[in-house]
Amino acid sequence: MKAWLWHHLDTFFTTLARFARTPVATLFNVGVIGIALALPAGLYVALANLQGYARALASGPQLSVFLALDAGSTEAAQVEARLKQHPGVREVRYVSREQALKELKAGTGLADVVDSLAQNPLPDAFVVQPHEAAPQALETLRDEVSRWPRVSHVQLDAVWARRLEAGLKLARLAVWLLATLFAFALVAVTFNTIRLQILTRREEIEVAKLIGATDPFIRRPFLYFGALQGLAGGLAAWAIVWVGLLLLNGGLADLSQLYATRIELRHLSAEDSVSLLVFSAWLGWFGAWLSVNQHLAQIDPH
Amino acid sequence: MISFSHVCKRYPGGLEALRNITLTIEAGEMVFITGHTGAGKSTLLKLTAAIERPSSGSVIVNGQNVGVLRARAIPFLRRNFGFIFQDQKLLFDRTAFDNVMLPLHINGFERREAARRVRAALDKVGLLSKEKAYPVTLSGGEQQRLAIARAIVHRPAILLADEPTGNLDAAHAADIGELFKSFNQVGVTVVIATHDESFAARLKPRLIALKAGTLTS
User: Fold this and answer.
1) What residue ranges define each of the domains in chain B, with the CATH number in brackets?
2) Which residue, of A245, A253, B8, B122, has the greatest Cβ tally within 10 A?
3) Measured between alpha carbons, how far is B192 from A47 in angstroms, rounded to an integer?
4) For residues B172 and B168, what is the distance between their CA atoms, to the nearest angstrom?
5) Which residues of A fall within a CB distance of 8 Å from B111?
6) How deeply is A169 buried, as exposed, middle or buried, from its count of CB atoms within 10 A (0-12, 13-18, 19+)?
7) Is B82 helix (H, G, I), strand (E, B) or coil?
8) CATH says A63-157 is which class?
9) How confident is the model at residue A106 (pLDDT cuts 50, 70, 90)?
10) What are phi and psi of A107, to 5 degrees?
11) Is the per-residue pLDDT at A220 higher than 70?
12) Is beta strand B81-84 parallel, antiparallel or unpaired with respect to B158-162?
């Protein structure tokens, strides 16, 4: 058991030494794998960020019902009662014009503009959560409510968010397609690297087989090499994404200052980072495994 | 113990390397297999170590029928042998020390114990001072002795040598003969294939003579 563990450790360090012996080749291989993985990983991060914003902006479909500017509080109460009795409405929240102005000041960074206004330009409003989220039902509800007296405008809030969601879904599919293609590329790169290694170490393999090495023993260093190369590629991809986000956030900081809000792109989560590394190491291992199985059988000493 | 019973070996293409060989080599024996090039000496050694399989008949080593051994069991059979190859098969990208280390590595020896054994084996063949040398920098005789060190380092019960004096002069060949004799004296079964009859005669071993794939004595 101890010898077995020792052997694995030994293989690990021998593999590291092998990387160090051919630094340029190693650098290029890791670079290729890193770039190949950074593309889908970067897109994934971009999507995750977009999705986060979309969610924050519109959690579910809502209707905003704006009353006429000159509507008084009794009229508002009438509309509220009517909304509450409507079978298609689940929840109603009243937003007074004063409260709306306060929220506008706090939430958007337009405080300077709001303060300079002579009078409150906002109407009283209701935020309505409907029972049904289907676009058809929402539109019927909107059309109905907008015909009520003292209601000046009904806004369907979630439509654009749903369109964005649908777009994101498509983009996510594209990310998976890309990831699949580049995963294949990673396996192919490893396959070829290992093939070359097996060819250059053919004699060693032959001798080892002749003096009693088992197949797993011969396979092990190549599998280690593949997995470690994949892992290094994964790390490179992670670093590329990290640096990319750092640069983008630098640019975004200037932009968001102009809009007086804070926009910041988030990096890959710890979970996603670990998944990326495990996945890349596994792909490297898999490429090596394919290659070793393919080529080791051809070395049959006589 | 190695025993051949009615063994034939036909290579693809119809060449018949061995014909109806029946022989027994007891544990602790020293045996020379002699004959001209192409008589089937190498084939006989290869059948013993499952590098080749017999076309018919059976090869039994330590009670195992080598000819029908599963592929996964073959490595473990081979660990019983120390094999000295006709072309030596030294690895030129590593030092003498690391060449001798290979079998111990394969056998899963702990590193410190392995290093001790490597030095003992190198000392035995008189190459201890050259442990850091690469095989290219060694003379023909030294290379042969390095190959022997690699074959004996894991203390196999059976030593198989294919033309161990192939391209050595008489003096060096005598040295190597003495080495084999000393291994045999500590109980190792030694089987040597050679066409060098003077080398064989000097050690007075049991002789098995092959001629065109058949036993002559």
Assistant:
1) 2-80+157-215 (3.40.50.300)
2) B122
3) 72
4) 6
5) 6, 10
6) exposed
7) strand
8) alpha beta
9) confident
10) -85, -25
11) yes
12) parallel
* Predicted local confidence at residue B154, as pLDDT: 93
Q: What is the pLDDT of residue A163?
A: 76
Q: Classify residue B137 by its DSSP letter.
A: G
Residue A213 binned pLDDT confidence (cut-offs 50, 70, 90): very high
Q: What is the mean pLDDT of residues B41-48?
A: 93
pLDDT tens, position by position, B89-124: 999 989 999 999 999 989 988 888 999 999 999 999
Q: The tokens of A116 are what?
A: 């300079």
Strand positions, DSSP E, chain B: 2-10, 16-25, 30-34, 56-61, 64-65, 81-84, 158-162, 189-194, 206-211, 214-215
Instruction: Match 């084999």 to its residue by tokens.
Output: B180
0.80 exceeded by pTM = no
Domain ranges for chain A, please list them. Answer: 2-57+162-296, 63-157
Q: Which residues of A touch B108 (CB under 8 A)?
A: 3-4, 7
- Interface pTM (ipTM) of the complex? 0.89
Contact B123, B146 (CB under 8 A): no
**B110 to A3: CB separation less than 8 angstroms, yes or no:** yes
Which tokens in the block code for residue A185? 């590329």
Residue A227: what residue type? Answer: A
B106 touches chain A (CB under 8 A): yes
| Best residue of B11, B43, B86, B106 to probe chain A, by most A CBs closer than 10 Å | B106
Q: Tell me the backbone φ, ψ of residue A147, rounded to 5 degrees.
A: -90, -5
Pull the structure tokens for residue A241. Answer: 């994404």
Convert the pLDDT of each residue in A87-105 to its tens digit. 888 888 888 888 888 877 7
pLDDT in tens, A125-183: 888 888 776 767 778 888 888 888 888 888 877 666 677 778 888 888 998 999 999 99
Q: Hey, what are A264's tokens?
A: 């910041």
C-beta neighbour count of B208 within 10 angstroms: 20
Cβ of B110 and A6 within 8 Å?
Answer: yes
Confirm or reject contact between A199 and chain B (CB < 8 A): no
Local structure of residue A34 (DSSP, 8 states): H
- Residue B62, token pair as written in the block: 């330590």
Both tokens assigned to A34: 């890193």
CA A208, chain centre distance (Å) = 47
Cα separation of B69 and B76, whole Å? 11
Confidence of residue A108 (pLDDT cuts 50, 70, 90): low
Give the alpha-carbon dihedral of B139, B141, B145, B150, to 10 degrees.
Answer: 60
